Amino acid sequence: MLIEINEKALNLPEGSTIKDAIDISTAPYEKGSILCLIKGRKEFEKNINKYKLKTPKGSIIIEMVSETEAAPLIDLWKNKYKEFENLKIRWTSSNEVAIGPIVTDFEPSMDEHSYDDGDVILSLSGFSNESTHLILSKESHSAVYGAPNNNKGVFARIVGGKRTILLLSDDDKIVSVEPVIERKSITDSASVSDLNTILEEGNQLFTYVQIQPNEKSSESVEHLFSLIENNRIEVDYESNSFLGFYSLQGLGKPVEDETIRKRGTVTIRNIGKGIGNVYIYREDRVKASSHTTVGKVLKGMELIDIAKLGDSITVKSNPERIMTLAKSQKEATDYLKSVGIKHERIGITDDDALIVSQEPEFSIDIIKKGTITTKGINKKDLTLIDIFDKETEAPRSSWYFKKITKLVEKPIGALKIHFAFPGMKLTMFEGNDKEAKGLIPENTPEKCIEAGKIGITNMSKKNVGLIGVRFEDNGEFGPTGEPFNSTNIVGEIKTDLDIIEKLKEGELLYIQRYNKKNR
């Protein structure tokens, strides 16, 4: 049997399941994500109510009427609308524009009817169904069109492009006729299915959303890449107009490219409440200075249309993110060669050196430049940190820590040494008092601060946001020299503390989150 998966034809044995289709086609899909299954194109088009007629002078949008009497006319249109493609404008007058002819099986009538401006009529010219024309009414008038006795032949209304109609002449033709896909067309046709659903001939299956990044918003696009790093996003807000993804809320980016938010546009909020939130639009919206456009959906709008609050969606970008951090210099060289990017090494340049920074920093800029410089360090100089970000630990402090170290966006972050004095047995790192605003006491120590525990000064003290670590246990003061009740414990260093103790003021400590993979 023949089906479509992500708009590509696929032949499958009878009785195949969605899982079989994904496995055979190697379609992108992350376990637990939603799926969209449409029975077939004809079933899908039953729920479409708008069509676009493209002409050399512009496009015309028509919408099916709701009168039940018009149902036979609408059915005929949905079965035969493609027959109007490449047909010439047969005539124009002050009242109408006529397109055709095609052949239908309607019976003509000789009655005169009144028509309104914007009516779309099926006319049986010369009282012959072999000369069926499409009539676009320019203004209110009365006429004998030989229209069938179904709603006076009226099956649609003109809802867009009225100016285009006035410009048409008999030298023009209909270039194409296409259904206008709206969210309600998808939701009425599609069903969310599990992997064991049996497929049928003509089914259309969608497994992922493909996004094309906006090359005019390089820094904000990197924010998008951070959101879809695991090729999966979870819906945090749903409305008729858009889906919202809020896991990076609070992570601000500069204003970049602003565009009209058409259906399928992806934006990031760049100011105010909700800064850092990402949105994908289901319906057209006007341009807003508070939203930077970071991309557009190329494939899989069907999944955006059916997604609900809490659903997960598989997402891919084209092109993909270029991220070399946490790779070895050799791994980066091999990877960059495969994507056509020239690689230059600095710092420790040995093949097994660990990359901790890249220039340009952002993927779009790397692609434009065609070259990248990566800085390497010895692997033993990387510090691993167990971050206490569970709800029962230090959720606010850990977010602040990940934000200012860039660990929320990158696999490797950095801390800049603020204070390091030999013999003091502690080091302090630069914080950001603006970002630390509102850092309430949480996960404060009670009796002793153990060596290697990372502390942050909370809002009870002037130096809010300052970060520190001690190299030996202390029963009086936290890692930033503050009392215990002014110290939030945010993590623990799992590697050699001597690496930190040797660093001087102004130097960088490169860090990575401690996990099962790098233990």
From TrEMBL:
Pfam families: DUF8179. Residues 391-513 form the Putative peptidyl-prolyl cis-trans isomerase domain. It comes from the Archaea. Coiled coil: none annotated. Belongs to the UPF0288 family. NCBIfam families: methan_mark_3. This is UPF0288 protein MBCUT_08990.
